[in-house]
Amino acid sequence: MSAAILPLCDRAIAQARAPAAAAPASAHPRMVLATTVLASSLAFVDGAVVNVGLPAIARSFPDHALNLSWIVSGYLLPLSALLLIGGAAGDRWGHRRLLLIGVSLFLAASMLCAAAPDLRSLLAARIAQGIGAALLMPTSLAILGSSFSGEARGKAIGTWAAAGAAAGAIGPLAGGWLIDLVGWRAMFLINVPIAAGALYLGARFIDRQVATAPAPLDWGGALLVTAGLAALTWGLTLVSAVTSTHGGAGALVWAAVACGVALLAAFLWWERRRGAAAMLPFDLFAASAFAGLNLVTFLLYGALGGVLLLLPYLLIDLHGYSATEAGAALLPMPLVIALTAPLMGRLAARLGARLPLTVGPALVALGFLLALRISGAASYWSGTLPAMLLISLGMAGAVAPLTNAVLGAVGARHSGIASGFNSAVARTGGLIATALSSAILVAHGAALQAAFQVAMVVGALAAVAASACAFVWLAPGQQAGKT
Question: Which of 312, 296, 255 is nearest to 403 (CA)?
């Protein structure tokens, strides 16, 4: 998942949760904005930096190379599973309290990542980072939305999104420089000053809030979805690794996948049984477009997560790039999206969501096919850059219309939970893509090049499927929701 894209995907959560026309809840709105920007930047920077650092981490733990994908999955798993309950916990216990807890946990986990003596300790710290991100992300957005109103709120949300895009652009470059200069452990220390600033500003300038949601949290749903995603991710990781080395997966591997699917089915049964008290109300799926749009999200962001994970690894391991150069190679994507996504959003508001959500993923698919030309014989300018630009243009055309269409597919009563669920689905797509890519992260030389090309073809097929889903599920001229 691109950290530069997720601010645009998450922007609607702040709008949906915010009161329609309330006076600012804080006497220090600029400091509140700075707090939310710093807090959410933790997740954006960390997600962007770690992909660049994977080759260096692999060299530190060569005996555990097959577990390398869990450095990414260990973070995405709790973030994907707990994002919705994190928002509900903020409603119940106060957004300020949950924000400070989430940032504190992220800070402590980042320092543990930097000091991890072995891969198991690093994975545990990454899981803690994911839990912290699941707490701070929705609560920072809720604070942002409730602290501004009218035109000021739109400006604040735009500033927050732009800061997130900038963090996603600068993160890989700064992280790569630190990796080359000091080592991979230093990339986690980027979070320390950011978290310290967020804690100071949050404790001083965010008002204490009274709980607004007395209903009990859906801990059963959270447990089932977390266990289901964990089992499915573990099983798919083993399928990828075992198939690449032995040509087929055993009964235990497929049992893990089946267990994950069964637990996720149990989660859906549990949510339907809880009705309005569920973390995922089934009323959301009354509109068929909502299910289709989330399938588009899963396929498109899954494909994107795969290329953003594998491309830096390929450039460093096979093409001899430094970590700094690999981070710089990813710069075109956040820049193109930040510059063109607002225009695409306005265009979609006039033309409807169907056209951009059909054309955008199709361009992404062409970009993946163009990435097949990335090889040792091709320079960055003739191989990597054209593919990145085409993928970026396709994503820019899809990001804003997709988020707006999700909001437009449900009633105002469900807009907040719909946005949160869509963001969780985007991260789950990246989680599944990471699991399936685990075997590629241990390949080298010609085997790595061949595996990367297979992954690009699979990514292209996923993007084409996303385009087809948008064409089928959205009516011609259907308007996106308002931003």
Answer: 296
